[in-house]
Structure formats: structure tokens, C-alpha cells
Amino acid sequence: MLCRQHPNSSVSQCNCTGQYCKHQLIQSNESTSKNRPCSNPIPFQPTINCRKQKGNIMNPNVVTRSSAKQSKVRTRAQLAATEAEQEERRVKLYGGYRTTGKGSIAEAKKQGKLKMSANGGDQRRSDGAGGTDVQLRDIFHNAQSVATTARGPTGILYDDRFALHRCLWDANYPECPERYQRVMERFAMVQLVERCQFIAPRVATEAEIRTQHTEEQIRILQQTHGSQDEAALEQLSSKYDAIFIHPSSYETSLLAAGSTVQLVESVCNGTVQNGMAVLRPPGHHAMTAEYNGYCFFNNVAIAAQYALDKLGLRKILIVDWDVHHGQGTQRMFYSDPRVLYFSIHRYEHGTFWPNLRESDFDYVGDGKGTGYNFNVPLNATGMTNGDYLAIWQQLLLPVATEFQPELIIVSAGYDAAFGCPEGCMEITPAFYSHLLSPILSLAQGRVAVVLEGGYCLESLAEGCTHTLKTLLGDPCPRLVEKLEPPCESMQNTILNCIHSHRSYWKCLQFYELYNLEDYNNTNPQDNFHQVVVSYVPPEPPAQPGCYETRNCYPVQSDAERARIHERLQRLQLLTDLSFPATRVCYVYDELMLEHRNSHEKWHPEQPERIAKIMQRLTGDYQLVQRMHRLTGRAATTDELCLVHDPQHVQLIEQVCESSTMKQTAEQYNSIYFHPRTNASARMAAGSVLEVVSEVLNGTARSGLCVVRPPGHHAEPDAPHGFCIFNNVAVAARHALEHHGLRRVLIVDWDVHHGNGTQHIFEQDARVLYVSVHRYDNGAFFPKSTDANYTVVGSGAGEGFNVNIPWNRKGMGDPEYVAAFHQVILPIAYEFDPELVLVSAGFDAAIGDPLGGCRVTPEAYGHFTHWLSALAGGRVVVCLEGGYNVNSISHAMAMCAKALLGDPLPVLGSATGGSRNSITTSTTPGPNASCFETLRNVLSVQQKYWRSLAFNKKLPSTQTLPAVGDATGELVQALDYMTLGQDEPGSSKQSPSSAGTSNDGGQAGSSSSSASSTGQKPAQTLTEFLEANLEALQNEEMFAVIPLKNCPHLRLLQPDTAPATIDTRAPCGDCGAEVENWICLLCYGVYCGRYVQEHMVRHATETVDHPLALSFTDLSVWCYGCDAYVDHPVLHPYKNLVHLDKFREPLVWAYGSDLVLDVVGNDAASGGWSRSSKAD
């Protein structure tokens, strides 16, 4: 409570001796009692009622009851009117709820419940099993629900009995006890076990196993328990693919399954925050009625089912990063929308184990589970950290954030790690921290990691170590090797996955579609992604039902193992695992409260902004007890002059000592001065410097700056937009010049563009400035086109300025999440900063009077968590704007909790839940304006950042079914070929797509349009041939009907096609330059049968090279089928020839189906060698 007459005097500081202030009181956000004493009271003057009484004037010190009552009524009325006016003003500017009258939150809840009752009684929202009461909650309820929740311990589960299970007849078998032992040895070396809470393992009950497996499979394994008949055990093992059975296999398999259940239960009931189970045998290949791929019982699937049935969970995310597809887990939840299964695995078009068609991207689930199965098939080896990071940013994180699971289970196989002979991938062990860290903010931190595969003992142990350290809250280490951009094969895979799931997830609506008309009328087509489904069936086994049990795995040479060891040792030595004991330091100084607008009492940039933040951090959230407070200091003139002109610094100092402060302030945009402005602004800038120095000196991991006035609008030579000195810019330049940093990232999420910061660093390549702000096509403050996405920096700084300008109000969590996943995080990781500074304005928060956006406080916590994976966790969050004191205080508390590693609230209502169809969801996803902005940003920034490779259009059709009969029926082919009426490039409906449309019914609209205009229907080829039957019989014309498909098409490898084809190339054998053909397998050029027949010889004498394309007429001949072939998969090859001959793309001639499907139909070997498998 403040005295209106003496606003600088706080009621709590009053030294009154009994008198009461007659001044009107200014009500603060906290409720206060009336008649509070003032520090500068006016003596009480009672109201005197002068009237005559028996001719005498009454004693002036006597107040009658009547006069006192009238005076009290008048006073109360005046106070009520004044308080009502003040309350309206306060709520409008500073947020919060009215404390009295119809506007109270209690009244709103009451009215809401009455309204719901009138509309049909007690409404309930059922979301799976049971219903829950619909309640009206205030906008900060989600944040407040975790106010006092700190991160719990990390659990670890292990048992030396897991080392009993081994192969008796092959000592070199990859799935060996040493896998478990080396992991535990590495944990002990870095003292991780002592930091964890031990979870006692247990054996699974048969009832738990039966939830996913048949009784027969349990009994078969049970009967082997304790058996000493090695030959019988090997014979039984040979009935299953990649299986060995040991006398202890039944015991250890039950122990592995039960321990996984125990870990999941401990995480769900809050015994631990998260945890890791180091166990074997693995489980994700085990199917309902079959052992498979080193797996007997599906540990993760059993535990997930237990959580659904016994723990009441309704949404579980399973992330399977093992390099082999977990087909067992996929099948068990393929129709269950409660489980989102996400698998990243080596596939190579089906040539890699387990060689299943169902492992490809177009297997998306079935029934109610459609859209909840994600396969990310890797069609090449050597995938790097950058490839996997792209999967996370483009697919997993957006979808997982939209799904909002209650529990995350990681099937953690480490066979994609560098050195593993099974995976042949290039993931460095430290990168597993970066894969795990971003998902720890989901599911309120409830994450269970369960060991699956991994067969390079060194990289397995190191990868598990980084995983457990991340679960413990240690910062993600900076990567030793520079991130490579996603390769072309990975780009195709990710876009294929997005195409298959786009209709089920709102976050994937970001990608635009193209139809046949777009395809034929656009040149060039670089931005058009073509979806190709290619599958090579496995070679049939020599002995069906009998599998190899010995020497059935890849073996590395001594030289290869030495090379792997050398690189892993170098990575381990160069990876910095040290970190400060203090997680978060913070700064706050009461001096910054003294800067205020003396001429506009209700100015938005008020002292209460930081006072309220400190109240939240100290009281409601009780966070300051776990953070180290630094003493603030004033920035020196030299420090300010790192980014500001000396004249500007001198001006601020002089104007605050003059009597012309108001007149001077009016010369600038949105600026006020106070005698204490210079001191407060210097304190703000200097305090940020203190936090940055504390972090860079290794005393604290991260920092929080509760400072004002803000800074990001301040220009080098002028104050601007409430900002005096540019606090963050001063800190960034200080880090570069005095701490020797080479790369600093500034993320500015204030709703207003940080024009000052941008201008200061727009020519400096050492500072990457990323701003996401409201722009409204230049109409939103600061109303400059410099805030548009086209402004990218200049000179040496070109490409290091990224603007994400929103062009409408109302942007909320879904839009900001999309901006982080599509733009901010990919660029930030590629930049690889050594320090992250956040210009944390919270005026995009819900309830802010100036921003007009709807970002929740908890969303800011998630943003902070994602950024914390960068720069070794060296993140400093610095307050900028935000003018609803409730919003900014909750938001800053969420950022602090993220830096402390506390579990964060879910983003449920803000981001929306998933549905089987995007049209049935009741909550919004990112809006169209957001997607347009992000596409514009990517179109400009992809020139500078190679990670931004996914801004492409997808075909509007769905994936075609598998190709049918190899020869086809001539009559059927004729019935669907048309002539005459069609314009070149017009769309035709194929038999597979007739009557269907995926783009608003356009595919089926052509016939009705034609009939309405009186046009004659197109003539089919059958009708044309019937009309010209006589000419055919007299051999005056010829008709060649190419095969719709041929079994040799499966040999094609579109990914290996050359970028260009030279149609003027001579024959490779004789040098002929006419009638040449190109082999579509090796791309050799040879002459035709009417020249020297070199193509005939090549195709017949070379194994599996039957397909050739003519340079003359673009026809394709199959020497294996002795026939012409015409199929959509041939279009890319024909297009290359057409481009070279005619300098324009070939018109698509296959109807409305823009998705190519190449599926082999026979079991003949396609020239591939079967890859060996281990889990």
C-alpha cells in the first residue's frame, strides 16, 4: 500500500505515532487493510457539524452521531469510487484478478459451474479409462501446480545375475556378459552409482509376461532352465532368428522384464524422478509368440502395458534409438493410440535385418492407433550426429510435444554409436546426452531408460555413461567434432515420414503440398520432394525354419578395431565432463527499484516488475534457497562503451542530474528519466556482467538476471523503448573481448524486436542474434522493417541475424514451439555457441497488456531447457520486457526451475493433444500465419545454414499400395489409357486412386466439370484402337502397350541416380553417337541393337542390368522381360534425359499419384547380401 500523496513512502515503513493518513491510498497487488498508517501523516481533522442548540454554538470538538454517520457515508463512497477506478487501471496494466465484485475469480468459477449444470448437469471429460471433472482454472494454475516440486533422485537398477546369460558354443557372440560388465565398470570409474538411488530388481510374474507373450513361449523357455544339454540348447536356438539359449536364460529374462517394470513403477509413483536399467538380455525384438534378435521377453512392452493396466497411465511415448527396428514392440502397440512408438533404425530398403517391409516409414499404425507408429528408416550407413539431430528437431520433438506423454520409455540401444560393427553409424557417445536431454522436459521428467543393444564395448560403456549423467542433471557436454548437416538420404527419409504422418499431427501441417498441376507448371522443381517407397525382399533361407547359431555376425579386422579405439579415446579425452557444483546463480538489487516514471503513475515499466519476480522466487516457488545470490554492481563507463557511444553514456549521466529530464525524454521513443535512472541502468548492466563472469569463470553453470530497466531496444547512440543501456549486448561483447569467447548466441523472445541488439551486432559473425517477435507487417513496435525476416546482417555478419516476425496477435505455445524446432534449435546447434544469452522479455506471455500473445509461463521453462543443451549448459537468462507482473513472475520462475533441472508442467492445453485425425482435435495447433512466417524465414536462412534442409513441398497424394501383377492385363491397361481430349499434363485417376482425393476432392471433380460444360468425355485407348482396327490389321499403324510393372524394377536405386545425364555421350564400347541407350543400374551408355548391339550385350552378359533407357524416344526396355516398361518410378530417369535434351522437365504422365512405390514381387536375390543382425 502506497500513499497517493507520498508515493515514495511505503506503508510498511511508517513510523506513525497513532495518527492516520487522510490521503487516498494506492492499492498494490496484495490486499491490505484500511486506515494503514502513513510515513508522513496529516493530523486528523474531524468533520464539524455547526448548528445552534438553544442559541448556543456547539463545542467544535464535539462530533454528533448524525454528522459522523453522514461523513462516514460520504468518505466510503469516495473511497469506493477511487478504489474501483484504481482496480480497473491496475488489472488492465499489471494483470491479476479483481478482488471484489462480479469480476472475482471465485465468482467466475461459480458462474461457470452454474452454466455447465444448466447445459446438462455435471459435465465430464473422458480421455480413455475414466472421466475427470471439468474445472475452471486460472491461467497460472499449470505453473503453480509444480511450484514446490523439485527434481527427485535418479534411479539405477542393475544385478550381476544379468552376466550369467551367455552363448555356450560361440565365445565371440556379440550379445555377451561383457556388455553389462563394461558399463558398470565405467559407471564406477566416474562415480555415478553413488549419485543414484538404487532400485532393487525383481523377477516378473507370469501374469505380467502373459500380457504380451503366449503361454507356449513362456513354457518353452522355462523348460530350458538349468539344462546342461548344450547340443539341445543349440538345436532349440536354431529355430529362432539370432537367438542363443543358456541354462540361465529363463531366469535372466524374467529378471530383465520384472526389473523394467520395477523401474517404470518407481518413476511413475515418484520414488525417483527418472532412472536407468542396465540389464540383459534385451527385449524390443521379442514378439508375442517368437523369440527374436537376442530377445526373449519384450521388457519395454511388458512394462508399458503394466503402466497402462496397473498404474492408470493413458499416454506413453516409447523412443527406440537402437539401430535395429524393434518390430516386436511395434506389433504389440500397432493399434493402440495410448502408446506412441518412435523407432529410428537402419533399413536400407529392407536389406538390413530384420528385413521387414513393416519397418518402412509408411507403416503408421492401424485402427485407432493409426498415426501413432513412427518408423524412421535409415537407408545408408555412416549417419552422423547431425542426421540424428535432424530427426529429433523435425519429427520427434514436435510430435512428442504435441502428444504430451505421461511417461517416456527409451529403448536405449547403442549400436548406432561409432565403432559398433552392427550399426556402421557415426554417433559419438557424448551425443546421446543431446538425444536424451530435450525429452526430459516432457512427461514432467518421468523418463525410464532401458538398455537394449550395442556391441562395441567401448562406445557402449561411454554412451551409457553420458546417458546416466544426463538423467542426473549434468549439463550436456559440448561436442568435440563439428556437426555435419543432414545428408540427402536422411533428408528424404525425414520428409517421407512427415508425408506419411502429416494428416495425423498438427505440428506437421507446416509442410505445404503440391498437386499434379503444380508439378507440371513449376520449373525448376528443387522444392518438390518426391516420395519413393522402395523395398527389396530378403533372399529365402536355404533351410526354412533353421537359422545360423555360430559365426553369424560381422567381424572387424584388427586394423579397424585399432582405428575405432584411437578415435574413441580421442573423443573421450577431449570431451569435458567437468561442471560447477552451483547450478544457478542470480542477481537482484533494490537499487533498480528506484527508476520510475514520476509523471505517469501507471507506466508499464514499473519497479513492481522485479519486486514481484523476487516475491515469487522467494516465497511461492522457494527457489532462491537453491540458487546462489550475487551482489550486483554498477557497470563502468568503459564497460558500457563496449557497445555504446561515449556521448550516449555521458548524456544519460548528465540528464539525470538536470531539471530537464522530462523534456529530454520526449525527444526519444518511449523513454522516461528519473534522478536515479543512471544509477539503476548501470546497476542492471553491471549485474548482468557479474552473472556472465560467474558462469564463464566456472563458478556456476547458469545464471538468472532479475534486472531493470531492460536493454534490448537501446541503440549504440540513444535510449529507446524503455531501455537505457543494452544489458545483454554489453555482456556479449564483454564475453568476447575479456573472456576470449569466439561464439555467443543471443536468443531474444521478447515480443518486441530487439532493434538495438541487432544493430550492434549486425556486422559481427561472432554473435548470432535470433529474435522471435511480433511484427504485424511493420505496424508493431518498434515499427521498423529491420525486424523483417529478410534482414540477415551485413558484411562479415551476413547470415548471423535471424528474425522470426509474427504478423498477427494471439501467438501462443504451439507457434513458439514450432519456431524453436524448425528454426532456432537447428541454427543454434550448427552455430555451436560457447555461451547462450537470453533476452527474456515476457510480454508475449498470456495476459500481457502490450504483447497480445498467449505464451504460457511453463512454455518459457521448456524453451530454457532446450537451450540448456547448448554451450555446455552455460545459459544466462536476462529479464527484458513483460508488463503483467503476475505473468512475468511465473514465467521467470519457470525459467529458474528449468535451469535447476526441476520437472516442468506439461504444455497440454496450449499445444493440443493428438488425435487420429487432425480435424477431430478440439485444441489448436500452430496457425497458418505461423507456418507462413517460418517458411519465409527458412527460405532466406537456408542459404546460410545447411541444417535448414527441410523447407520443401510434399505430394498431396497418399502412398501407393504395393505393385501388383508383374505383367498386368492388357484389357485393364487399355481401359485406363486415354487419348484425344486431354491437355498435356492433365491429371488422370489411376485404378488405385479412383474415387479418392486427399486435397479437398479435386481428384474427383474433373468429370463433373466436363459434363457441366458439355465437353465430350476423353476417348480411351481401347475405343481408339477399335475405331482404327482396319489400319491395325493392315499394319498401317502399330500399338505398343508397355508393361505396367516388371519384377526387375526392384533393382533400381533412385538414391544413386546421377545429378545429370549427358544424352550426347557416345557408346562406351564403339564410340557411336546415335541410337544410344543408358543402363539404369550402372549408368553406362551403349549403342542400340540397330547399331553395334552393345547395349544388348551389356544387358544380357551383366548380371542384374536388364533395364535401359533410350536417348531417342525416352522409352525403357527390359531385357529380362523382353518388353517395354512404363512405371512412375522411371519418371526421375526420364526427366534427367528430358532436361538434357530439351532444357525443361518432363511432364508427369501418371495421373494424380505423385508417390512412387517400388516393391519387389519375387524372392529372387537382388544382388544384395543379407546383413547380419544383433539387437
UniProtKB/TrEMBL annotation:
Reactions accelerated catalytically: N(6)-acetyl-L-lysyl-[histone] + H2O = L-lysyl-[histone] + acetate
Q: Which Gene3D superfamilies match?
A: Histone deacetylase domain, Zinc/RING finger domain, C3HC4 (zinc finger)
Q: Which GO terms describe its cellular component?
A: axon; centrosome; dendrite; histone deacetylase complex; perikaryon
Membrane: is it a keyword of this entry?
no
The protein's organism comes out as Anopheles farauti
Annotated coiled-coil positions are none
Q: Which family does it belong to?
A: Belongs to the histone deacetylase family. HD type 2 subfamily.
Positions with biased composition (Polar residues): 984-999
Q: In terms of domain of life, where is this protein from?
A: Eukaryota
Q: What is this protein called?
A: UBP-type domain-containing protein
DNA-binding recorded as keyword: no
Q: Which Pfam families match?
A: Hist_deacetyl, zf-UBP
Stored SMART domains: ZnF_UBP (SM00290)
Which keywords does the record carry?
A: Metal-binding, Zinc, Zinc-finger
What range(s) does the UBP-type domain occupy? 1044-1144
